[in-house]
Amino acid sequence: MSVQIVCVHCDAINRLPQARDPKAGKCGKCHKALFDGHPAALTTARFRKHVANSGIPIIVDFWAAWCGPCKAMAPIFERAAAELEPRARFVKIDVDAEPQLSAQYGIKGIPALFVFQDGKIVANQAGLADINLLRRWVETHGAKAAA
Description:
Layout: E1 2-6, E2 13-17, E3 40-41, H1 44-53, E4 58-63, H2 68-84, E5 89-94, H3 99-104, E6 112-117, E7 120-126, H4 131-141
Parallel strand pairs: 3-5, 4-5
Antiparallel strand pairs: 1-2, 4-6, 6-7
Helix pairs in contact: 2-4
InterPro entries: Thio2_N, Thioredoxin, Thioredoxin-like_sf, Thioredoxin_CS, Thioredoxin_domain
Keywords: Disulfide bond, Electron transport, Metal-binding, Redox-active center, Transport
Family: Belongs to the thioredoxin family.
């Protein structure tokens, strides 16, 4: 069996055997690591490809550079990516750069955190969160085979 992983560098869709260590996985197209322990900044088109094609949950931080709570959330989200990948993919969406995406999901306040699994929203929260919330989301929705 394998799990489908979208490369954050080139957006190629990869199949990673579940028996293999996901942290050692490399993209078949660009040959870069499939997981680097950092949140990926995505555009609307890239975000849609990741959500539609990922076999692991996508945890999203909708944020803006001018937002004080977003600045406070950034190191927490970075730490979560370093600690919890590859059980989930962590991505950031700049609401100023991608207003149509934030409108699509009804983002009224930021930071806004969402979990997407199988293309659907399975959890969300508005406002600053601690790392324990992100850990609980990964425990609840994360890829068990990638642990």
